[in-house]
Specification:
Elements (H helix, E strand, L loop, with lengths): L4 H19 L3 E3 L4 E3 L2 E3 L4 E8 L23 E2 L13 H16 L29 E7 H8 L7 E7 L16 H7 L7 E5 L4 H5 L3 H6 L4 H16 L5 E11 L1 H11 L13 E5 L9 H15 L4 H5 L3 H15 L20 H6 L8 E7 L14 H11 L5 H11 L13 H24 L5 E6 L9 H4 L11 H17 L18 E6 L2 E6 L4 H8 L5
Parallel strand pairs: 2-5, 7-8, 7-9, 9-10, 10-11, 11-12, 12-13
Antiparallel strand pairs: 1-2, 3-4, 4-6, 6-8, 13-14
Helix pairs in contact: 4-17, 9-11, 15-18
This protein binds 2-acetamido-2-deoxy-beta-D-glucopyranose (7 copies).
Organism: Aspergillus sclerotiicarbonarius (strain CBS 121057 / IBT 28362)
GO molecular function, one term: hydrolase activity
Keywords: Hydrolase, Signal
Length: 555
């Protein structure tokens, strides 16, 4: 084969550049700490700076409180090799029942195992060696070109930043779960200079979401939300060292990550200094179970103390990490009712002064924020109880989820809003589908409805519709990295990544392969990202039901 001199030379230069870049790992001097890039990814041509501390250890006396600034430590150059994961906890209903049930249901096979979590043993997952209470760290991926430009004395223009809030029902997950942001970085190059990608940890389970009046006497509710805000403040202050533009921050989150973003959009809506932590938001299936009730919050709080055999928060602060990690895993594992993980954001009278949907009704939200809102075709099934086939048991389960709901309210819900009509006219074909619609509405997609209405249609909305389109199915599309062995429709993945990155770059989603993205507008237009086509549809969300949930009659 004859070599073509121009191309050979270019390839030679490219491989020389890659070699040089992998041999030279740049430094970022943050003042309070010095970091060296942890690695260089040749395929994506980016550096990664992993495990950068953004807050002091939330341990000992700092437990269950808002995070504190990190202290100065310049004695060593950090290489970020020391991985960090916040303590994890998975409910038995999820690990022992739900996965199997969903599998049966989708295949049309009857599911005949017990749905009572007490019939299953508590088998704690083996602990991840990276798990530690001292977990308030973040990772950065930055295109090599941008990083080298940032370290140059004549700095080039800075680029937009995407900050990723992972999902995991507020009790699981971590910043490094999806390391495939190389796809997003690659796609962003089509719309400009690219983006800097940041991924954060925040406290989970009891560590981040303990709540209730008694907790608030000597601690802070919603500490996990405060962690996220601390991380966003860090990004505002330090991202320029990595070539990022702190005036162009987009927060991207899925599930619990997006549910958190929804709370930030409605938190401190009137306070100016809290306004500019980020400019744009992409909420993928924003999820949380409404916990407005102080009594319910207090029950979880005392349950946690009882497991620890202590009677006050200060005593809990005195215990070893290991003890607390085991107690958190046990409480969430053993005591979560089907569909819930006990913990998550709660109404605390301060940062969260009411449920986000209610704050939106009261026009308390950041109206200047640009948002893109994603939902999946079947959000509810993964957290829907198999009990739904017996209406009396299902009624009991609804009362467990909403302890203050009145019997006549359940009647209204099950007769009027979600009647047992299975000919498809109501959007479901059987009892499980019906319950799944209930879950999808209150737990996920009405959140998008509230925001679409609040912004008077000045949003971009999409439906992730690759069958079966379950909750979480979209995540591997957001982070698809081109690996052909993954069961992902690459066309849909690249189009989604195009829309995400171009929106992050200038507020308008565009794609080199997908159609023009029409704003939600008065026609309630959505982009349908499906396996049989990418096209414009009308929002299928049921407005009557969402309006009802927004009014909070369930408590
Ligand atoms: C960061 O670099 C380290 C060292 O090369 C590597 O082990 C790790 O997988 C990298 N992480 C990402 C997200 O690229
Ligand atoms: C449960 O279902 C399996 C097939 O999935 C069947 O073999 C078994 O007999 C069923 N058990 C009961 C008690 O119905
Ligand atoms: C609490 O006390 C019970 C009963 O004495 C014991 O089994 C359990 O291990 C104790 N838990 C902790 C966290 O000390
Ligand atoms: C914490 O532990 C120390 C030493 O074990 C003990 O002196 C102190 O009284 C404990 N404080 C609380 C609040 O239990
Ligand atoms: C579905 O069933 C309901 C109640 O029986 C009926 O009113 C409605 O017309 C039916 N719709 C369709 C599309 O068959
Ligand atoms: C809404 O739909 C109508 C009818 O299809 C169309 O005439 C109108 O231009 C649409 N409005 C917007 C803002 O897209
Ligand atoms: C992938 O999705 C695109 C867009 O919807 C569709 O045209 C294509 O047929 C899908 N490919 C496969 C293999 O299903």
């Amino acid at each position: 084969m004859r070599a073509i001199p121009g191309i050979a030379l270019a390839l030679l230069c490219l491989s020389a550049t890659i070699k040089a870049r992998s041999n030279y790992l740049p430094l970022a001097d943050l003042g309070y700490a010095i970091h060296r890039a942890t690695g260089y990814n040749a395929a994506g041509d980016y550096y990664n700076f992993s495990n950068i501390r953004y807050a002091s250890p939330p341990t000992g006396n700092n437990r269950f409180r808002i995070p504190q600034s990190p202290s100065t430590d310049r004695t060593v150059v950090q290489d970020g090799m020391d991985g960090r994961v916040c303590p994890q906890a998975s409910p038995i209903w999820y690990t022992a029942i739900a996965r199997d049930f969903v599998d049966h249901y989708l295949k049309g096979i009857p599911f005949n195992r017990s749905t009572d979590v007490l019939d299953y043993p508590y088998n704690p997952d083996p602990r991840d060696p990276r798990e530690t209470e001292d977990c308030l760290f973040l990772d950065i991926l930055v295109p090599a070109r941008i990083m080298l430009r940032a370290s140059d004395p004549i700095r080039g223009p800075r680029v937009p930043v995407i900050v990723w809030f992972h999902g995991g029902a507020y009790t699981t997950g971590d910043k490094s779960q999806f390391t495939g942001a190389s796809g997003l970085i690659q796609r962003s190059m089509a719309f400009g200079d690219g983006v800097v990608f940041v991924s954060i940890n925040y406290r989970l389970g009891a560590f981040g979401w303990l709540s209730g009046p008694e907790l608030r006497e000597s601690g802070n509710a919603n500490a996990g939300l405060m962690d996220q805000r601390a991380a966003l403040r860090w990004v505002n202050r330090y991202i320029h060292f990595f070539g990022g533009d702190a005036t162009k921050i987009t927060v991207l989150g899925e599930s619990a990550g997006a549910g958190s973003i929804m709370h930030h959009i409605t938190a401190f809506a009137r306070e100016r200094d809290e306004r500019d932590l980020f400019q744009r938001a992409i909420l993928q299936s924003p999820a949380f179970i409404p916990i407005p009730d102080f009594e319910q919050q207090d029950l979880a709080f005392h349950q946690f103390l009882n497991i620890l055999n202590v009677s006050s928060l200060d005593q809990a602060r005195n215990l070893s990490s290991q003890t607390l990690i085991a107690a958190n895993a046990y409480q969430v594992g053993r005591y979560s009712v089907y569909g819930s993980n006990i913990y998550g954001p709660t109404v605390d009278g301060n940062l969260v002064s009411a449920l986000p949907g209610e704050l939106i009704l009261q026009k308390e939200y950041k109206w200047y924020m640009k948002t893109m809102l994603g939902q999946n075709a079947d959000e509810g099934l993964r957290t829907t109880t198999p009990d739904a086939i017996h209406e009396d048991v299902y009624r009991r389960d609804l009362r467990r989820t909403f302890p203050q709901i009145q019997p006549n309210t359940i009647d209204y819900l099950l007769r009027r809003l979600y009647p047992p009509v299975f000919n498809g006219s109501r959007g479901y074909h059987d009892a499980v589908g019906r319950a799944s619609s209930v879950t999808a509405d209150y737990g996920y997609q009405c959140n998008n409805y509230y925001l679409n209405e609040a912004y008077e249609g000045e949003t971009y909305a999409y439906l992730f519709d690759v069958s079966p389109g379950l909750h979480e199915d979209d995540v591997q599309y957001t982070f698809y990295d081109g690996d052909p062995s993954k069961r992902v429709n690459a066309t849909v993945a690249w189009a989604l990544q195009d829309y995400i990155t171009s929106f992050a770059m200038d507020g308008v989603p565009r794609s080199t392969i997908g159609p023009e993205f029409t704003p939600y507008g008065p026609n309630r237009t959505m982009m349908d990202l499906g396996g049989t086509g990418i096209k414009t549809i009308r929002d299928p969300t049921d407005r009557e039901r969402c309006k009802w949930w927004q009014l909070g009659f369930f408590y």
